[in-house]
Structure formats: structure tokens, C-alpha cells
Amino acid sequence: SKKAMKQEPLPIKGEEKIAHEQGERREPITRIRKTISQRMSESKNHLVHTTSMEEIDVSALVAFRERMKEVVGEDVKLTYLPFIMKAIVLALKEFPIFNSTFDEEKEEIVYKQNYHLGIATDTDRGLIVPVLFDVDRKSIIELAQGIEELAELVRENKFTLEHLRGSTFSITNYGAIGGSFGTPIINYPESAILGIGRIQQKPIVKDG
């Protein structure tokens, strides 16, 4: 009949499934992304995460960095990070619990005597955390040079596992992509991580 002729044809077996998958693109994860996923899951499963957020007036830091840039010249790329890393070391020495790990098997807190800072870095291969060793023994200029060397290794994909091991505390700088606040995941088995937001001008009440 004419009515039967107007009916839509029944879907061929499997056709409906193909239609639902249209617009998708599948890509197997790389070995490094699998490792990153496992480490983040490990962090969430083994550590109790809590977040505290503060805004700090860094006008003096901005002015000091500008003066230092004139002293070191254009040979050194002087960002805010070396100054912040030095401040972190001072804080870790005053509050050593943040530079420690927890040995679950022996039920002991392990206080680290070294200050090796991991710098969370977003790459095409995923989030990695290269390490700058002995931050307490390095000058601001040495730290700036070390950060630039690590960045170059990451850009050229020349880093090794030795560059990713041994950190005692980590930093993530979401200010570099314009973020003000974030809730970073701790780099297990460390006990804490510092997230840094962008430096910006804001109206505040000062001295009343």
C-alpha cells in the first residue's frame, strides 16, 4: 500500500551503533600519559587533599625583580619563579612537615633534609614534573638558569627519568595561563604542593 511505501526502512543490524559513534575520534594513550594517570590516581587514593587560598601583595617583589633584571641583563631570563622558590625553602625550613613523606609500611613520617623542588609543566605529552635539585644552595641567578635549562629539555623532549625523580615539594604555576586560583593535585608521595596564580593589579584597602 501507499502507506507502507512511505514508512522508513528498518535499520540494518549494527547501523544504529555506527550512527551513535559518528563524530568521535579515538586515540590510544601514550605510555607517559598512562603513568601520569596512575600517579594522579595514586595521589587521590593515598593522600587527604585540602586546599587553602590566599592573595598576597607582591608589590615589593615586582619592584625588586625589575631592579634585578637591570643587574643581570638580558643573558638571564629572570621570572618570578626563582624568588618564589627561595621563599618556599624558607617556609619549608620553618614548617618541615611540608617537606616530608609518610612511610605507610613502617608508620613513620620521613622528614627530607634536601630541598628538591618539582615544577609541574604542561607539555604535548601530558603533565610532567621536572625537578630542580638543591634549591637552598643555589642563588637566584643559578635558579633562573636551572629553570631555563629544564624548560629547554622539556621543549626539545630530551628529559630523562632522572629529571623527574627525587622532588621533595612541588609547584604548579597556573598563573602562566591566566588563572588566579586552582586546586592542584599533590605530587605523590609528597605531602603538599603550592599553586601560584597570576600577578595582577587590584584595588585593595591598605592601612585602614
Can you offer a commentary on this structure?
With 208 residues, the chain is of the alpha/beta class. The chain contains six helices and seven strands. It has helices at residues 2-6, 15-20, 31-46, 59-72, 81-94, 140-155, and strands at residues 100-103, 108-111, 117-123, 126-128, 131-132, 169-173, 193-196. Strands 3, 4, 5, 6 and 7 form a five-stranded mixed beta sheet that branches. A hairpin with a 4-residue loop joins strand 1 (100-103) and strand 2. The chain is globular and about 55 Å long.
Question: Outline of this structure?
Answer:
The chain is built from six helices and seven strands; from the N terminus they run H-H-H-H-H-E-E-E-E-E-H-E-E. The chain is α/β, with parallel strands linked by helices and 208 residues long.
